[in-house]
Design a protein that fits this description.
Shape: globular
Strand content: under 5%
Number of strands: 0
Number of domains: 1
Helix content: over 70%
Distance between the termini: 24 Å
Largest sheet: none
Radius of gyration: 13 Å
Order of helices and strands: HHHHH
Structural class: mainly alpha
Number of helices: 5
Length: 121
């Protein structure tokens, strides 16, 4: 049983733009309800705006943004539950690691996880 390869890390300066792209994809998703699409896309945009506000995000912020983007992309592509669960777990770990150095970004990432959990995913 082989594990899926991890995507190449996104350069920190490109993370906000990637999150905005993922938010745009979510708004066009037809397999999520309109409220779920809007909620997840708005959180992705808000995280992108937070990360982009200071220029280049810190390493912790960039990791949160990258992992959040990967999780949202997996939901958009309707990946099986095991890869989605693994991505969700990695994001949870990154939130815990970033809470002291990037509390606002960690809070937004936590809200994203909560919104996904409220969808039953």
């Amino acid at each position: 049983m082989s594990e899926q390869p991890q995507p190449a890390p996104t350069p920190p300066s490109a993370v906000p733009a990637r999150l905005r792209e993922v938010a745009r994809l979510l708004r066009d998703a037809d397999h999520l309800g309109p409220d779920a699409q809007k909620s997840l896309a708005d959180l992705a945009d808000e995280l992108a705006n937070t990360l982009g506000a200071s220029g280049v995000p810190s390493a912790e912020e960039a990791q949160l943004g990258q992992l959040a983007g990967q999780l949202i992309q997996a939901l958009h592509q309707r990946e099986d539950s095991a890869p989605v669960a693994a991505k969700r777990h990695r994001l949870q770990e990154a939130i815990l690691a970033a809470e002291t150095r990037a509390p606002f970004a960690a809070g937004l990432a936590r809200q994203l996880l909560d919104a996904i959990a409220n969808l039953g995913i």
